[in-house]
Design brief:
This protein is mainly alpha-helical. It has helices at residues 2-6, 12-26, 32-36, 65-74, 97-121, 132-141, 147-154, 159-166, 172-200, and strands at 43-44, 47-51, 58-62. Helix 2 (12-26) crosses helix 5 and helix 7 packs across helix 8 (159-166). The longest helix has 29 residues, at 172-200. The radius of gyration is 23 Å and the shape is globular. The N and C termini lie far apart (59 Å). 18% of the residues are buried.
């Protein structure tokens, strides 16, 4: 994560793609469509307040300092409070659902393509896509954050969804269980060697 935050020598296009990815990560894996529809008017009282496109829920997040830095990057292109923070939807024909869908699809594809070259510059060998911003947040959160709080951060309607989702990233219990079996087997082998030596006396 810190490698992506610190990567240097990016083109303007790469920097924009990384900004969108980090914006998603800092807001617990915010969906691309919601990011692209984020307007300056949704930012007030130090919070981001928006309606999710997936289930129309209204959510509110405190804006981290790192996000404020990203937003500052786009402030020069701000055209009023009702303008989009990111440029992709500024020329979308909102009466045409197909045009809106295509612009989101093209933008996501562009972001993912640029992320490939960005991770190389950052010296990362793992695949990074827009969707993986959500996975990255879940992986770092691990079991350190209470499931009820994660449910709120992920904007899940059902706690079971959060628990099932987070299970993909919590490995400590499984690792400890594996170690206990391996260590137990090592203890058994040690005892067998001890008794075998006794019998030979």
């Amino acid at each position: 994560m810190t490698q992506l935050e610190k990567v240097q020598n990016l083109s303007e296009v790469q920097r924009h793609s990384l900004n969108v990815w980090l914006f998603s990560f800092y807001f617990a894996g915010m969906r691309v469509s919601d990011i692209l529809f984020t307007k300056w008017s949704m930012v007030y009282d130090g919070r981001l307040n928006y309606r999710m496109s997936k289930n129309t829920k209204i959510v509110s997040f405190k804006i981290p300092q790192k996000v404020l830095i990203i937003m500052k990057y786009y402030e020069k292109n701000k055209n009023g409070a009702d303008d989009f923070i990111f440029p992709e939807m500024k020329k979308a024909g909102f009466c045409n659902a197909k045009d809106v869908y295509n612009k989101i699809k093209v933008a996501t594809s562009k972001f993912n393509k640029n992320l490939k070259s960005i991770v190389k510059k950052a010296g990362i060998n793992k695949k990074v896509t827009m969707h993986i911003a959500r996975h990255s947040f879940g992986n770092i959160a691990g079991d350190a954050i209470h499931p009820l709080m994660l449910q709120k951060l992920y904007r899940h309607s059902d706690l079971k969804t959060t628990i099932n989702y987070q299970a993909n990233f919590i490995h400590k219990d499984a690792d400890d269980a594996l170690d206990s079996v391996i260590n137990f087997q090592g203890t058994i082998n040690h005892l067998c060697d001890f008794f075998r030596a006794k019998l030979l006396l």
